[in-house]
Structure prediction request, 268 residues.
Amino acid sequence: MKAPRGSSAFEAARRTLLLGACVAALGAVSGCDAGGRSNDTQHPALLAARPGPPPPRSPVPPGSHPLGVEQQRDSLVYVPATLSSGEPAPLLVSLHGAGGDAAGGSALLTPLADQYKAVILSPASRGSTWDAIRDSYGPDVGVLERSLDEVFRSIAIDPERIGIAGFSDGASYALGLGLANGGLFRRILAFSPGFIPVGPRSGTPDVFVSHGVDDTVLPIRSTSRRIVPALQDDGYDVTYREFEGPHTVPAGIVQEAAQWLDWSSPAG
Prediction:
C-alpha cells in the first residue's frame, strides 16, 4: 500500500527537524523523547469517551458512512458486512498521514475489516496534519472524542478490543494518543512513525511498529530504531518489523498487523 499523496519535501524536512529536536531532548524532564512523558492528569491528550451498554441494534448499515459530527472534514466509520447485528465488534481508529483525510485513513485498513469483523473509525485532522505534530494536542483530540462518542452510541463495541493505528504523521499521533489512553486503546499500530508527541502515559497497550529501511521521508535510523528500543526499555511489549522499501505500508505488513491484533477469527 503506497503512501498517500500530500507530504511535500518541506513537510518531510520539517518532520525530520522536529524529530532531531526531540532526540536531542532525550532524558530531559520536559523533552520529547520516545517516551514523551507528562504527569498532568488534565492533559489535553486524554480521552473520556468509553463504550457503554450495547445499543439494541446498530442503526449504522454496512459500508462506509460519514458520522455527521463535523461540518467540514467529517469522520468516517466503516461497518463490515460480516458483523452480526448486536455482536460486540472490535474497533480500530485509523489515522491518515500528512496532507490526508478521513478517506485516506480508512483506506489503510478497511480491506481487512470484513475479514476480521472490525469497525474502522477514521477521523480527519483540522489542519494539514495532526495538531500535536506541529504544536500540542488540541482540536483534533476533540474531533476524535466526538467521533468515539457517536460510534459508542450507535454500534456495539467490545471494550477489550479497541485499538488505534496510523501511517507517518498519523503513526506518530497514534503512538502519542495510544500511550496516553492505554485504558481505552489496548493495541497501537504505528506504520512508519517519526516520533512520539509529549504526553502522559496510562495502561500497558501492546505496540506494533513497521518501517521501511529505504524511507527517505522519515529515515529509519532516527525514528523507529530509536522509538522501539525506548518503548521496550519502558516495559512495553513491542512487535517490530523492518522491510525493504520506502515510506509506505506494504500489504503484507498490514496483513501481519491484522493477525497480530488477534481480535477474532477471520470471517469464512
In short: The mean pLDDT is 86. The first strand starts at residue 63 and ends at 66. Residues 28 and 36 are 10 Å apart (CA to CA).
